[in-house]
Specification:
single chain, mainly beta, 26-stranded antiparallel barrel, 5-stranded mixed sheet, 62 strands, extended
């Protein structure tokens, strides 16, 4: 009884609107987040609490033109004391943006004329999706032309996307960032300029990568491939050739006021004697130097060497070496031979030194045993004969024949550790001696370093005598940005160097410090240490011990590379006996612009290293290298002076080098220099040279026979087949009256046969797809094809309306719908984006069977393509007419409505 009264009071007190709103929220709770591109319904609950039937006139409106009611108007009747659900069917367009919207039900009581409305909120959820499709890309292009490819980028979601465009192999013809609204699309084009000097046909791959700025993981990447046909193909020779260079130079030099000049010839060749590259040969011949030898001119030299698989032989001049301890480097004239077995190698050499007075001849034999791939042990014997005629001059240390047996080895202990070493013994008539050397290298993830120690006894008759040396460096990476390092160097004092060039100063050096990489393109280094430099020449120019602190900064800013360095220290000058402060400051700036690299440098020092205390030194210079083209270059260098520690070598004060390729295989080089010769401090010399080089390729083996290609162009209803120009790589041919063509003396290989369309009528088209790939291997090759008139396809895309929507629903931005048309034959495919209501065409089509397919391209689901595939056969010169019909469908909605009845229990009076 109490429940019945409660229900009765609620129905009387609360109005229809309150109950209706609550019921509506309950019924749509499962659809409060709607997906775009779908149809749904929103229910409204209406009640009639009166004793009369109610008739309502109902209309529906929404807050967005993309949310349209399928039934915008209607009539509705509710019996007395009943409630009923009125469903409002809605179509959510695919381009409806994410967000909250409202649906309003406008109700008018037909009996009383009273109007009221009800509103329900709905939420359209976000849908992120975009697509990337290849529209057009050429299958072939000629070298030097630009490859252009187009892609269709479309936002298939309902959220405005900011998309990032990238390409690793091409240039994008748009901004790197593009914003697309829901259902919006854009054609993206990329291009790449091909190399006009391409020597052979090759494929070029172009890519386009697209990802969302808000969701970088959602990435789409497409590749297209185009074959580039060389217009200047390399001359595929039927001979295997050996490249050589023959040059003639005119050299002049003014040395200490005395001028000399003359000609010098050179011949150099290196290559193989067979197509399989098994027989390798190298030779060099340089005639006598007409001026005094220096670093910038060549010395007289003659040699030839030959290598085949396991066999090697060298005859003539070279730097011969037996081992680090016995004979590290000795330039001379002689012969060397080596043969490699599976795991054992045997070899030796004879050498007559050219620039060392103590040794007349050397003879060496050795054998190497390979333990595994990167580990081996060698034993050898070196025999030296002294130059007796010079025994009584200077400080010759070789008093008699010397015998030097030795053994050396290198071992890969692990992936990151290598060890090597050597032990040698020497004996002469008067002395015996020994020497040994140990070396190790470590390369771990964070730690890397190397150590080397060598010691030779006072009577050792090898390359080193009565000396020892120790070199080491270590680097430890604390983090990605911070590393600590240390370096120690102690030069050997007594070694038997060639007298052609002077020796560098003796150096003992320790440096330790830290490096901080504060940017990917910038780092700073702090170092502390000491260094000892001693001049080996007499009279000495320097002999000092210096403790220093150094700071250096390396930074790249745009195109500029900057290096700044400063050093302060305390110097003990053993040459003059005083001590003082030394400071050095240097700057280096380099950059590249307009195919030219620039390097400007300068330094300033106040030092106590030399003859004067607090001596000021200022050095500056510039280097400019410009490559005007692949054939022309210019190099200019200037430096005002050099530090005394470098006076043991030839030094350039001014240098001008000009190189010009006159035509293929012929070059001209001009050079001029002001220089300081080794050992000189103030006397400057001038050297100039004019050099002509010829680079012929000498045939050494015939590898193929010339082939030919011939054929006929069939006349298939066109005006003429005479005078058509055909291209086969670098070969040309023109057809005769009957349409015949011939290519003779063609090198075998892969080619593309092309037609010069300027020699045909504008509508003539070959019966086969051109350019056509041909493999010419037979002596005689035949390829026939025909010329016919091209066909066309034309048409119109027509919209057929089957329903009319109220004008109130057409608010907002008008969307221009489009479709994609694809025309396909056995050999060709063309695609186009076409808009509804416009004409389209495909021109210059080869007669034959064709299929035209129609793709929706995100077309609204309300539209139906009547026929999405057309198959037909095109005849020569035919124009095929097509009509594509897009039908706007009438959507039929069926739903079942059941009235929600509310009953009332009769209240009986108490008796």
């Amino acid at each position: 009884m109490i429940k019945t009264w409660t229900l009765f009071i609620i129905l009387l007190v609360f109005p229809v609107s309150a109950f209706s709103q609550q019921q509506s929220e309950r019924l749509i709770s499962k659809k409060d987040s709607l997906m775009p591109g779908m149809s749904t319904s929103v229910p409204f609950t209406l009640e009639n609490n009166s004793g009369e039937s109610k008739n309502y006139d109902i209309s529906v409106t929404t807050s967005s033109p993309h949310i349209t009611p399928i039934l915008a108007k209607g009539k509705f009747q509710i019996p007395p004391y009943e409630s009923s659900v009125y469903p409002v069917p809605l179509r959510i367009a695919a381009e409806t943006a994410q967000g909250d919207y409202s649906v309003t039900l406008n109700i008018t009581d037909l009996n009383t004329g009273i109007a009221f409305s009800k509103k329900v909120s709905v939420t359209v959820s976000g849908n992120r999706k975009f697509s990337l499709t290849v529209l057009d890309s050429p299958e072939f292009t000629r070298a030097g032309e630009t490859i252009r490819s187009s892609f269709l980028l479309k936002n298939n979601g309902n959220v405005t996307e900011t998309l990032i465009l990238e390409s690793k192999s091409a240039i994008i013809d748009h901004d790197a960032s593009i914003t697309l609204g829901p259902n919006e699309s854009k054609v993206i084009t990329i291009h790449k300029i091909t190399n006009a000097e391409l020597k052979q046909n090759e494929f070029q791959n172009l890519n386009l990568s697209v990802y969302s700025k808000d969701n970088p993981k959602e990435n789409q990447n497409l590749y297209v491939s185009t074959q580039v046909i060389s217009v200047k193909p390399a001359n595929n020779d039927i001979y295997h050739r050996l490249p050589i260079a023959a040059s003639l130079s005119f050299i002049g030099m003014k040395n200490m006021g005395v001028y000399n000049d003359g000609f010098q010839g050179e011949l150099y060749g290196k290559g193989t004697l067979d197509q399989e590259n098994k027989n390798q040969i190298e030779f060099h011949a340089v005639t006598r130097n007409p001026i005094e030898f220096n670093t910038f001119t060549q010395y007289e030299e003659y040699f030839i060497n030959y290598k085949r698989e396991r066999f090697y032989i060298h005859l003539g001049d070279k730097t011969y070496s037996s081992s680090y301890l016995t004979e590290f480097a000795r330039y001379g004239r002689g012969a060397e031979i080596r043969y490699d077995f599976n795991k054992v190698s045997l070899g030796g050499f004879y050498n007559h030194p050219r620039f060392f007075r103590d040794i007349k001849d050397e003879l060496n034999f050795y054998s190497t045993f390979k333990i595994r791939k990167e580990s081996e042990i060698s034993v050898g014997y070196l025999y030296k004969t002294p130059r007796k005629v010079d025994m009584y001059y200077g400080d010759a240390r070789l008093d008699s024949d010397a015998h030097l047996p030795y053994t050396k080895g290198k071992f890969k202990i692990s992936k990151n550790i290598n060890l090597s070493g050597e032990f040698a013994y020497s004996t002469t008539k008067a002395t015996d001696g020994t020497a040994y050397m140990l070396q190790s290298d470590v390369n771990l993830e964070r730690l890397s370093g190397s150590l080397m120690y060598m010691k030779a006894s006072p009577m050792f008759a090898g390359y080193f005598t009565n000396t020892h040396t120790f070199n080491g460096n270590i680097q430890y990476r604390l983090s990605k940005k911070i590393s600590v390092m240390a370096t120690y160097t102690q030069d050997a004092k007594n070694f038997e160097r060639d007298t052609l060039l002077l020796a560098a100063p003796y150096r003992q050096y320790l440096q330790y410090g830290v490096q901080y990489k504060y940017l990917p393109n910038g780092f700073v280094m702090l170092n502390n240490g000491y260094q000892k430099y001693q001049d080996r020449l007499e009279p000495r120019q320097f002999d000092y011990y210096e403790r220093f602190f150094r700071m250096s900064l390396n930074q790249k800013i745009g195109i500029f590379q900057i290096n700044l360095e400063g050093q302060i220290g305390k110097t003990d000058n053993y040459l003059t006996g005083f001590s003082g402060n030394s400071s050095f400051y240097s700057a280096n700036l380099s950059f590249e612009k307009f195919k030219t690299s620039f390097n400007v440098f300068g330094s300033f020092a106040i030092t106590s290293r030399y003859q004067l205390q607090n001596q000021k030194q200022f050095y500056y210079g510039v280097r400019i290298f410009s490559r005007f083209s692949d054939k022309t270059s210019l190099n200019i260098f200037y430096q005002n002076n050099y530090i005394p520690e470098e006076y043991f070598k030839d030094r350039n004060l001014f240098e001008l080098l000009f190189h010009q390729q006159l035509f293929p295989g012929n070059e001209l080089d001009l050079s001029g220099r002001y220089s300081l010769q080794r050992g000189e401090i103030g006397n400057k010399d001038f050297i100039f040279s004019m050099r002509y080089t010829w680079r012929p390729d000498i045939p050494v083996q015939k590898v193929a026979e010339y082939v030919s290609l011939s054929g006929n162009i069939h006349h298939l209803g066109i005006k003429r087949t005479e005078g058509v120009r055909l291209m086969l790589g670098s070969y040309l041919s023109v057809t005769d009256k009957e349409g015949n063509y011939t290519f003779k003396n063609v090198t075998p290989g892969n080619y593309f046969l092309e037609i010069d369309r300027s020699t045909t009528e504008i509508n003539d088209i070959p019966t086969s797809a051109f350019p056509v790939a041909l493999v010419l291997t037979d002596k005689e090759n035949i390829y026939n094809f025909g010329l016919t008139a091209a066909a066309n396809v034309q048409g119109h895309i027509r919209m057929i309306e089957t329903e009319t929507e109220p004008q109130t629903l057409q608010k907002g931005k008008n969307k221009k719908e489009s479709i994609i048309l694809e025309a396909v034959s056995n050999e060709q495919t063309y695609r186009k984006i076409c808009f509804i209501g416009e004409d389209f065409d495909f021109t210059y089509l080869r007669p034959g069977d064709w299929t035209v397919k129609v793709y929706r391209n995100g077309l609204d689901k309300r539209y139906k393509i009547s026929t999405d595939k057309f198959e037909f056969t095109l005849k020569p010169a035919e124009t095929k007419k097509l009509s594509i019909q897009i039908v706007k469908q009438k959507l039929e909605i069926k739903y079942q409505q059941e009235s929600l009845k509310v009953g009332y229990n009769e209240i009986k009076g108490k008796k």
